[in-house]
Write a structure and sequence with these properties.
Length: 242
């Protein structure tokens, strides 16, 4: 059923309403979402500072125990360095850095000697590039105060969240969109179902984030993730609407 796909003259009002709705949401909730993520990230940075003895002890042992702190460590540099720049400066394996950042662990299949040497190079580079205006104790070797540590942690957290600000807001926006759609569908009497194949859904049900198998021209089958699948009341089982 094409719904309004063949009636583009009906789209303009819906588009304007959608844009207005998003703008209202962004002004009201996006700063709050960012603030909440920065607060959580600040606590994680404070933990990482403890593990590295306030950036004075970024050893291979520390990075082996806490490989997931690497994105935060990149934000301690002046200026903050991108993942590829760190790889270029240290000459370490792209797979090593990518696995540490994406999966929070060390890659398998790499020798212990190579891992240790690479982690040591990363630690040395981070200390060399660390922001001395932010981590003032690195030069004069004084014990940082709680205020200094918190200030450094929140600035690093802000840098880290700034680097991923779009995904943070985009994920929150996606949650809002699905919540609005769910509320509207339930007002129409639809029932949400989970963990069900799209072609087994009953009329009057809907589901979010289903994988729908699609047959390609070459005969191969792939799963396409679909945000929302709706089975209208008048439909037959196996004929859903995306």
């Amino acid at each position: 059923m094409p719904v309004n796909s063949v009636k583009p003259f009906l789209w303009d009002v819906d588009i304007l309403q959608s844009v207005d709705m998003y703008n209202r949401w962004f002004v009201k909730f996006a700063p709050q979402t960012y603030h909440e993520n920065r607060a959580k990230t600040t606590m994680l940075v404070e933990e990482a500072l403890k593990w590295t003895n306030n950036l004075t002890n970024i050893t291979a042992d520390v990075l082996r125990q806490h490989p997931d702190i690497l994105p935060m460590l990149r934000m301690t540099a002046a200026p903050p360095i991108a993942r590829d720049r760190l790889i270029g400066l240290t000459g370490v394996s792209k797979n090593l850095v990518g696995t540490m950042e994406a999966k929070g662990r060390l890659p398998s299949g790499m020798s212990i000697a190579v891992i240790n040497r690479s982690l040591q190079q990363i630690g040395q580079m981070i200390i060399q590039l660390a922001d001395r205006d932010l981590f003032t104790w690195l030069d004069d070797h004084h014990i940082p105060t709680e205020t200094e540590l918190y200030r450094a942690a929140i600035i690093v957290a802000d840098r880290l969240c700034g680097a991923i600000a779009d995904p943070i807001v985009r994920n929150a926006q996606e949650q809002r969109q699905l919540a609005v759609l769910k509320r509207w569908l339930e007002q129409q009497g639809y029932i949400q179902v989970a963990s069900v194949a799209f072609n087994n859904m009953r009329p009057g049900t809907f589901s979010f984030r289903l994988n729908v198998p699609v047959l390609l021209e070459d005969g191969n089958k792939v799963n396409i993730p679909v945000d929302a699948v709706i089975m209208p009341y008048q439909s037959r089982v196996g004929i859903s609407h995306f």
